[in-house]
Design goal:
By secondary structure, this protein is of the alpha/beta class. The chain is 38% helix and 16% strand. It has helices spanning 14-25, 44-50, 76-99, 135-146, 171-181, 200-212, 230-240, 251-258, 260-267, 275-279, 289-296, and strands at residues 5-9, 29-34, 41-43, 56-61, 106-112, 123-124, 156-162, 164-167, 197-199, 218-222, 271-272. Helix 5 (171-181) links the parallel strand 8 and strand 9 (197-199). It is globular and about 60 Å long.
Length: 312
């Protein structure tokens, strides 16, 4: 039987690592497109010159500069870097699909819940309007447009608007673990803002689900069905570590560290539900914040992200 190859653009981060390991455990060959050459990798220039590998079943776009990198000052130059790292790489993958002699079956691209304007109470589904009004909403609009293929290409398309991905190996939890472990954690700002989130294993499984299920297409909200606030997250995470979580991070400190526009990602929130995701039959392994925190809170963390605890 011919090999089933999945090409992941920008798959070197912790989400890409989880997805790669899950795909390999399910019998797929994985090729990572990145700036760094290596085994089972190709560079972006090689993709442009040589096209997609043979037997490419699916293409996944995960590339993008970390927006919350506090080592980088939020200014116009960094805004352009964040934009280009998402748009240009997604365009490159889309062009490679168009040029392929044998088209992949599916193209799964990433966007974010920043597509929806921050609001204290409004409930957003995949059908809600958004994509304009601030930098992040417009970034998501451009990101999704970059992934759009002509109808005659014949490749099924899925866009996953991801919430905050929670997992021990990276992202927000990697930054918060030690402060919470030493009892210094707490909510951000007022703590009343909603935090759209998803467990690392579930976002990896949602990408796999989108690849394997031929009825899945269009926009999916990559968030948990458990609607929580920043205060509820802090309480659950602190509780899983048997620590208090009472020390808030004031809004003005976030503004100083990140810049006021970027800090809005933490100090304001969106109430997002995965309506279409659930309607299409996806089942969460970690549907609530307490079970998620229990998974990534142990001091000695044994999950090697090779599919052992991820499953289909």
């Amino acid at each position: 039987m011919a090999a089933k190859t999945v090409v992941i653009g920008g798959g070197s981060g912790f989400i890409g690592t989880a997805l790669s390991n899950l795909l390999c455990s399910c019998g797929y060959d994985v090729v990572i497109v990145s700036r760094i050459p290596g085994s089972f990798r190709m560079t972006w220039s090689e993709l442009e010159q040589n096209g997609l590998p043979k037997n490419t079943l699916a293409v996944v776009s995960l590339a993008g500069q970390n927006i919350l990198d506090m080592k980088r000052r939020w200014n116009s130059g960094f805004e352009q870097t964040v934009h280009a790292s998402r748009i240009n790489t997604t365009l490159s993958l889309a062009k490679a699909i168009e040029k392929a002699d044998v088209k992949p079956s599916v193209f799964v691209s990433t966007s974010g819940v920043g597509y929806y304007p921050p609001h204290p109470n409004k409930l957003y589904t995949e059908h809600s309007e958004g994509g304009k009004g601030d930098y992040f909403a417009e970034l998501c609009t451009d990101w999704e447009l970059a992934a759009k293929l002509p109808a005659d290409v014949g490749t099924r398309q899925v866009i996953i608007r991801s919430g905050v991905v929670l997992g021990r190996r990276g992202g927000m939890i990697a930054q918060l673990y030690l402060p919470f472990f030493f009892g210094m954690g707490g909510p951000v700002g007022s703590g009343q803002q909603y935090l759209p989130w998803i467990h690392l294993h579930d976002i990896a499984r949602l990408f796999l689900y989108s690849i394997e299920k031929e009825n899945v297409e269009g926009v999916l909200n990559g968030v948990s069905p458990d609607l929580i606030t920043s205060k509820e997250f802090a309480r659950a995470f602190g509780g899983s570590l048997w620590r208090p979580a009472l020390i808030p991070l004031p809004e003005f400190v976030c503004n100083m560290l990140l810049g006021s526009e970027r800090a809005r990602m933490l100090t304001e929130g969106q109430k997002v539900i995965p309506q279409r995701t659930l309607e299409l039959g996806f089942e969460y392994n970690y549907p609530d914040i307490r079970s998620a925190c229990q998974e990534f809170s142990p001091l000695i963390y044994t999950d090697d992200l090779r599919g052992n605890n991820i499953g289909r």
